[in-house]
Structure formats: structure tokens, C-alpha cells
Amino acid sequence: MSLSSATLLNSVALSPDSPPLLHADVGSDPVGWAAGHRAALRSVVAEHGCVLVRGLGLADPAGAETVFRRLTDSLMADREPFAPRRTYAEGVYSATKWPTDQPMCQHHELSYALDFPGLLLFACLEAPTQGGATPVADAEAVLQSLPAPLVERFEREGWMLTRTYHEEIGASVAEAFGTDDRSVVERYCRTQGIEFAWQHDGSLRTRQRRAAVLRHPVTGRRCWFNQIAFLNEWTMEPEVREYLVDVYGADALPFNTRFGNGDPVDAGIVTTINEAYDRHVRREPWRSGDLLLVDNIRTAHGREPFEGPREVLAGLGDPVRLSDLAPTAGGRAA
């Protein structure tokens, strides 16, 4: 480790309730500071799983994108998003459009895809007046705190994501796949191990089975890596779920999750998973200009309800291929 990395590691403030926090003295050159401290910052993430950099002074999308590119080997496109978001550049997006009064549960970005970011970068250009933190949770600790029989079943079977793409809610086919050309969508699904079926009304239904537990590519430790609880029907607000079931039917919700063999994941299991996350969540209110770096395999993240404007950009960095991690059951096809 270089002297710069060691110095930066020693400067990180640690708290059981907050993500690791580093105050940056950047002067007027946040891009230069980030580029000069790239190795050191990545060492901090390797040590702690995430770090919140305060004082970087990020104020616009162009500046945030430049910093993202200085800190990553590459940025990847968002694939199969479950809700629309604005694209600023390849690999740089607005936060997912989600009701401001509802939380986004802990999850790992694109854990339902065969390629997903290894490093997430979040830049807060404008902090909300209240709430809106991006809490994080240690995926190793979450895994260890879940009931062993539940973990064993998910490791054995994997988990299944089912989706129905409607025009009225969630991401449309065009938003999720970048095109509404059926032949292109079908080709993508085949290469990504996604079963698909076009419905009489023109909507698309898909399902894909993925691993629920991965070994970290560097540490080799097992991590709870999925979106089983977040994308499950029982995580929705009750009135929202009732409305969607009434309009679309229980089998055509915009998204839902199941055990890898297709059995339903009931409300009790979702509660158990979310309570495990809650026991390990750390949070720090955003300040405008902040940068948050997250190891996407080792560390889950979410979003708390908020009031007022909130502009947080997300960068999807350092793509990882699922097959390279030798996942347990459910790593590819449904």
C-alpha cells in the first residue's frame, strides 16, 4: 500500500451507525484530487466496503461524470432497469425514479443481471431538505444473521425474478432493453438466460433465475447478493400492491420474486430479510457535493424517503460477470 493510501485509511472516521467518512481537502480541483487519490480511495473501499467522501464539491453532472471516470476502470450501461431514470452519459444516471415518500429497501445494483457493476459511485449534487440518505449494509454480516435454513435453500435453488413490462407503470420494454424491436429484445433475453413470452395485449413477461449468494472476487467471502426482498410484492405499500393486483392480476405484477424453483416468497420471509438488513444498516445524511463509493457485492444500499429536491447521480463502474464468480445454484437460466 502506498503512503497516500495508508494516510487516507488512517484519516477515515469510523462509526457503527454511519458509513466510513472521509473529509477531503480538494481546494478548487475535485477532479485532480480524485485522480490523484484513486488508488488510495479504492484501498479504503477494499478495506471497509464503502466510503463517503465529504468536501469534494461536486456540483454538476459533467463534473461528477469526470470524477466517476477517474475512479473506475470503466462504466457500464444500465441493463433491465425496473424503473426509468435519466441518462447523463454512458454509465452515468439519475437516481431511480421511486416515490419520494417510500423507502427503497436494501439491495445490490443489477443483481438480477449476468453483468453488474462491481463499484457504485453516487454524487450528491443537491441534498434534500429532509431524509433521503443512501443507507448501506454489510452483505457478509446480513448473510450471517439470516436463518441458516433460509440461506441454504436460496443457495441451493437461487432466486427467481418475474417481470411484466407495462407501458403505464415501471420501465417499459423500450426503457428496459433500449429498443421495442421484438427480435432484438428476444435475442437479448436468450443471451442473458431470460425466459420470455409476449402476451395478447402486447406486454412482455420474463423470468430469470440467479444466485442469491456470491463469493467476493477479492476476499472470497460469501455475500448475500440479490434483490429478493426489494423487488418482492410484499415490500410494496399494501395499498400499492392491492391496486396493482386489482389492475393487472397477481401473476402480472411489474416485478416480483420467488424461490428458484418458482415457489412464492411469502411476507414473513421478506420481513425476515428486511429485518436482517435493518440490523446492519449505517446511514449519513447527504450534503451537497458528497461522493459515496460502494463495493456493490460486499455492500448493499437503499434510499430513504425524503422531502424537497434531491439530485443524486449514480455511476455503474467496473463491470463484473456473474459466471466469473462461480456462483452457487441459479446463476444463469430460469
Distance between the ends: 43 Å
Structural category: alpha+beta
How would you write the strand order of the largest sheet?
1-2-16-6-19-4-3
CATH architecture of the largest domain: 4-Layer Sandwich
Strand content: 25-35%
- Give the overall silhouette: globular
Task: Count the E strands.
Answer: 19
Number of contiguous helices: 10
**CATH first level of the largest domain:** Alpha Beta
Kindly give the count of domains. 2
Relevant CATH superfamily of the largest domain:
Clavaminate synthase-like
Largest sheet: 7 strands, mixed
Spell out the helices and strands N to C. Answer: HEHHEHEEEEEEHHEHHEEEEHEHEEEEE
CATH topology-level fold name of the largest domain: Double-stranded beta-helix
The averaged pLDDT comes out at 92
Radius of gyration: 19 Å
- The low-pLDDT segments are none
Please bin the fraction of helical residues: 25-40%
Domain TauD/TfdA-like: 29-313
Cofactor: Fe(2+)
GO molecular function: dioxygenase activity
Protein name: TauD/TfdA family dioxygenase
